[in-house]
């Protein structure tokens, strides 16, 4: 009898062991759904990113370039089911730092930064990271590990426009430089300008000025008018190199109104307003190098959502600029949305666009 009970107990222990082994080998439901197919963990993670609150902290919100950049940011965030709040600072770095702190305290899910410098921003950026709020910057002079910083290929843009200036002028003449210190992209553009000066000894800089303000284009126009009076004769000035489209707009208006159309303007950046000026055969602004401002906004958002998703990202993201020359453009007016039909490489960048981001957009569109 005892022998029989011992045998029964042994059988029960064996059955229980097999059951425990089977239970231990069962995969979680999230990995083996009822349909027997592996779950798409990337898609599941993407769906969890819907409804995020994103802060955009801007140093300067000026002109149509900034407007189109903001449009690109909002477009991409909204496609992913999120919402953007813009914090403008009117060029005040102390206010920019304060706005960054406010975004952290208000517990935004992610933060985008447009321009600014290390002194104003790095402490706040580090505070955001400590609170698990990812940050992605554009043209900001900050170097914090884990924070991607987008830049437009500034030296390349300067080289493109300066090479065209040198070619059009036959390698000689007098030029005016419009540039301002204190901005990371400007400092990179200045490196290319210095190399241009060293290479082109017969092209002389006869004047240089530039300041960022809330009325940059208008202020530039006034300063350019003064320079035209100082150099009143045809041939006194060959060309103007403007390191920002707000500078180019102001200089071009002054030159056109003075009837000094022998002076050509070469700029950097591109917006719909800029494109209209370049297409106008009576306007002195003849060429520019740029990245589509809407693309900049879209790409910056994609890298922020990659950080939210837990993806590995580079600390430096260089965007590829394109050169836009009046000779490339049709006679009829076009917008930057149509520019890709005439200028190879413009707009529609897929940079930073992952498969799971596309899935997240599709999921958000269904809600």
TrEMBL record:
Q: Kindly indicate whether the keyword Plastid belongs to this entry.
A: no
**Domain Periplasmic binding protein, chain residue ranges per copy:** 54-311
| Cellular localisation | Cell envelope
What keywords sit in the KW lines? Answer: Signal
The residue ranges crossing the membrane are none
Q: Which family does it belong to?
A: Belongs to the bacterial solute-binding protein 2 family.
Q: What is this protein called?
A: Sugar ABC transporter substrate-binding protein
């Amino acid at each position: 009898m005892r022998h029989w009970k011992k045998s029964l107990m042994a059988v029960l222990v064996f059955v229980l062991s097999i059951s425990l082994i089977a239970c231990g080998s069962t995969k979680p439901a999230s990995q083996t759904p009822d349909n027997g197919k592996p779950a798409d963990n990337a898609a599941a993670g993407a769906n969890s990113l819907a409804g995020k609150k994103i802060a955009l902290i801007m140093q300067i919100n000026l002109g149509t370039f900034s407007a189109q950049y903001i449009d690109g940011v909002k477009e991409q965030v909204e496609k992913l089911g999120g919402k953007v709040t813009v914090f403008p600072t009117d060029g005040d770095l102390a206010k920019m730092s304060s706005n960054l702190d406010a975004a952290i305290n208000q517990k935004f899910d992610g933060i985008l930064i447009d321009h600014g410098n290390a002194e104003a921003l790095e402490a706040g950026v580090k505070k955001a990271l400590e609170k698990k709020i990812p940050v992605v910057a554009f043209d900001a002079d900050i170097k914090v590990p884990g924070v991607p910083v987008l830049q437009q290929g500034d030296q390349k843009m300067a080289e493109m426009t300066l090479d065209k200036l040198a070619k059009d002028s036959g390698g000689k003449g007098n030029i005016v430089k419009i540039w301002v210190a204190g901005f990371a992209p400007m400092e990179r553009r200045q490196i290319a300008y210095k190399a241009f000066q060293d290479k082109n000894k017969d092209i002389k800089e006869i004047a240089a000025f530039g300041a960022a303000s809330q009325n940059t284009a208008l202020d530039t126009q006034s300063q350019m008018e003064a320079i035209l009076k100082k150099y009143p004769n045809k041939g006194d000035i060959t060309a103007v190199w403007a390191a920002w489209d707000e500078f180019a707009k102001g200089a071009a208006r002054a030159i056109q109104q003075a009837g000094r159309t022998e002076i050509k303007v070469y700029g950097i950046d591109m917006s719909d307003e800029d494109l209209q000026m370049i297409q106008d055969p009576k306007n002195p602004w003849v060429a520019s190098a740029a990245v589509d401002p809407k693309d900049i906004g879209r790409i910056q958002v994609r890298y922020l959502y990659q950080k939210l998703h837990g993806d590995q990202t580079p600390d430096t993201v260089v965007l590829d600029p394109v050169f836009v020359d009046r000779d490339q453009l049709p006679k009829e007016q076009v917008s930057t949305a149509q520019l890709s039909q005439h200028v190879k490489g413009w707009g529609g960048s897929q940079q930073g666009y992952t498969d799971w981001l596309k899935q997240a957009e599709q999921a958000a569109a269904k809600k």
